Amino acid sequence: ATFKPMAKLFSTLYLDLYPAFIQLRPWKFIKGGFVDNFGRINKIETFPGDSSKIVGYHGGIFKNMEDYESFPGHPDPNDPYFLKTFLDLKRFQEKELDSEVFIVPGIYGLMEATWEGFGIETFSRILARPKQAKKLFDDRGKLALEMTKIFAENDAKAVWVFDDYGYKTGMFMSPRNYQKFVIPWIKRICTAAHKHDCKLILHSCGDIEPIFGDLVKAGVDAFNPIESTTANPEYDIFKLNERFGDKTTFIGNIAPQMLATGTKEEIENYSMKLIRELAPGG
C-alpha cells in the first residue's frame, strides 16, 4: 500500500531509482509489530531524533533448523501477489509518473534475512554444520533465483537484491563461506537476469572488500551503497572505481551521517566529486 506514495516521493525529490521491496510481507502480527515472512521479529519504534516511527529488528523466531523447516510462512515465489504488485507498479511508473522515477522490484538475497531469522548466535552454530548451512543457503538461493526469473521474464529492467554481507569493521562470516555458499547463487541469479536483458543491483552495507572482486566476476551490474564510513581504507568508492569501474557500476555513497550533519557546501562538493569522477562510463 505504501509503494505508490513512496514512488511519488522519490519522483518529487528527483531521485532516479526507487527500490520497491515487494518480497517483504508480514506473516503474523504481534504486540507492537509483526513477524515477517523470513521469521524476523519487527517492532514499531519511535526515533528519538524527531519522534518519527521506524521498524526495528528484534531477533528471529527460529531456534534451530527444525523451527525453520516447519515454518509455514516462507515466501512462495509463485504467490501471485509478487508479480501482480510489480506489474501494477510498472503501469503506475509509465502512466502516472511518466517514467520520471524508475521503479525496481526488490528482493532478499541469501545472507541478511537468513541469519536474522535465527539471530547471529544460532546462525553461527548452523555454520558449523556444513550440511545444514548448505540446505539453508540453497533454500534462499533458489527463492531469490525464482523471484528474479519471474520479474525478468515480465520485462523488469533491473532487480534489486538486498543482502547485507558486512558491517563497519568486517563481514558477517568468512570470505571462504561467502565463496562457498553465496557467490555461486549470485552468479546463477545474474545469469538468469541477463538472459532477459535485466540488470542485477546488489545492496550491501558494511565492508565487503574481500569478496568485492568475486561479486563483480559473478556478474553484479551495480553496487549500492559502498559504505563510506567503514574501518577499511581500501573499501573506498574511488579506489574501487579504479579497479572495477570498467566492469560494474556504483550507486550512492553519500553517507547518511553527511546528509544529517554536513553543511550544504560539504554535501554539494562531495556530490559533485562523485559525479565528476564516477559518472563517466557509468
From TrEMBL:
GO terms for molecular function: uroporphyrinogen decarboxylase activity. GO terms for biological process: porphyrin-containing compound biosynthetic process. Residues 122-276 form the Uroporphyrinogen decarboxylase (URO-D) domain. InterPro entries: Methanogen_methyltrans, UROD/MetE-like_sf, Uroporphyrinogen_deCOase. PANTHER family: METHYLCOBAMIDE:COM METHYLTRANSFERASE MTBA. This is Uroporphyrinogen decarboxylase (URO-D) domain-containing protein. It comes from marine sediment metagenome.
